[in-house]
């Protein structure tokens, strides 16, 4: 088995999600819809979330922008779909700390998301990578699903 370096994994995963985004499109009906952008790069995202009790039952996004912003949003939806909202929040907060260089990132929890760490080397891209995750956190809050 070939072991990919973080750099290779990063390129591979980002490209894969950029070319074939998961959960792309509107989600109707939804409980929360939020439009956010990253003016530094021109990235846009509209996130749709549907809750079932305290779980993220459905999540989808529309958007345009650079490959990192769109791939990261796609990865985000794939990861948190079906998760309890509090677990989705934990993952998003962990990604934010990892991107801020405050923690290494736990492969077991994050899986392929660990590849986003490849972005840390490109500081101007960090906002691109976090757009989807920050929007998710806002959506959870708007849905009344966040715990502090
Ligand atoms: Zn961008």
Strand content bin? 15-25%
Number of domains: 1
Radius of gyration from CA coordinates: 14 Å
Poorly predicted runs: none
Series of secondary-structure elements, N-terminal to C-terminal: HEEEHHHH
Major sheet strand order: 1-2-3
- What is the terminal separation in angstroms? 42 Å
Structural class, from helix and strand content? alpha+beta
Unique bound compounds: zinc ion
Architecture in CATH? Alpha-Beta Complex
Helix content: 40-55%
Give the averaged pLDDT, no decimals: 93
- Most strands sheet: 3 strands, antiparallel
User: Could you tell me the number of beta strands?
Assistant: 3
CATH fold-level topology: Sufe protein. Chain: A
- Contiguous helical run count: 5
Q: How does the SSE layout of this entry go?
A:
Blueprint: H1 6-19, E1 32-38, E2 43-52, E3 55-64, H2 67-80, H3 85-99, H4 107-110, H5 123-142
Antiparallel strand pairs: 1-2, 2-3
Helix pairs in contact: 1-2, 2-5, 3-5
The protein binds zinc ion.
Tell me what you see in this structure:
The chain is of the alpha+beta class and 148 residues long. The protein has a single domain, classed as Alpha-Beta Complex (Sufe protein. Chain: A). The chain is built from five helices and three strands. The protein has helices spanning 6-19, 67-80, 85-99, 107-110, 123-142, and strands at 32-38, 43-52, 55-64. Strands 1-2-3 form a three-stranded antiparallel sheet, with helices on one face. A hairpin with a 4-residue loop joins β1 and β2. α2 packs parallel to α5. The longest helix has 20 residues, at 123-142. The chain is globular and about 40 Å long. Bound molecules: zinc ion.
